Amino acid sequence: MKTILLHGLGQTAQDWKKVVCQLSSSNVECPELFSSMENEISYPQILGDLERRYSNAKEPLRICGLSLGALLAIDFAIRHGDKVASLVLIGTQYKVPSLLIDFQNLIFRCMPNKAFESMGLS
């Protein structure tokens, strides 16, 4: 059975490296959530990428998500419940407060572009 590890905002797939080393399974994937985004990223785009990648899985997936990755895991499970064997959700909310998102967006607009380059964003 395949295990999928989904990172959070401000992270990359490499942030799961130490976790992957501790797992006994070699069938683990850590997709880069922002790698296919050319300009402005959006939640629906990221979720769509995950759906294209995993909705045709031959066997149910074990999905672990951190923060944004956990929200994506929840949405994927809602849409493709037959493709999910288990979920591990870390540091997530079932509903994101709009005030928090507005504040986060304000902070992101004030940050220099260089801060986003390590995530593969421009």
From TrEMBL:
InterPro entries: AB_hydrolase_fold. It comes from the Bacteria. This is 2-succinyl-6-hydroxy-2,4-cyclohexadiene-1-carb oxylate synthase. It comes from Blautia wexlerae.
